[in-house]
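Trying the structure run again after the queue cleared.
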Amino acid sequence: MLEIKDLSVWYGGINAVKGISLSIKRGEIVTLIGANGAGKSSAIRAVAGLVKPRGSIVYTDKDGKDIELVGKAPEAMVKLGIALSPEGRKILPHLTVEENLLLGAYTLDDRAVVAENLEHAYALFPRLKERRSQTGGTLSGGEQQMLAVARAMMSNPDLLMLDEPSLGLAPILVDEVFKRITDINKEGRTILLVEQNAFAALRIAHKAYVLEVGNITLEGTGHDLLNNDKVREAYLGG
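Done. Tokens:
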């Protein structure tokens, strides 16, 4: 579904991602783990079209067509079936929950489809339906994260990318968010997950990559990396 080859991301003279290659098969949960500054968010932002990388990112759509993503605008990615829930949530605090969700469907013209996607979002996150008329800024941190994920789901993506969904959340809310991620994956959606909480990410991932200062240093199944001594020592507290 997604084939990344020799991907590099530069910010001026800083090389944040250094020629990484990875692949994602349809229906998988793939996670990138690593410390702050490892290049995880830069990699996912490159796929979303938010930064211009060097290298190749080839996306295979539902019809089997291979599409080169490098050089495409972010709105083009959404129309292709790729959506991002960004780090820091980036909800609009002065808009209601429902207005925030509807912004996620801005590429869709069919009102019936938008209404269907809205009900699906509420089914995934019932708490959002209870708070549909509240402004986003009045929600708790966990509710705002649910809103960010649900907003990304409003475009009915084939590939859902999540950047640090557990950041700043209490452990009980982390469990709830990751349960929803697995529910979304069970619907047949492919997920690319960037996460500092290595334990939570590796528990649900089919495949995982470890990034260190812009390089992939380890890869394997989520189960294998969860039991890898180097990963346990560096990211799981031994």
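The beta strands are 2-11, 14-24, 29-33, 54-60, 66-68, 82-85, 159-163, 190-195, 207-212, 215-220. Worth checking whether this holds up in the mutant runs.
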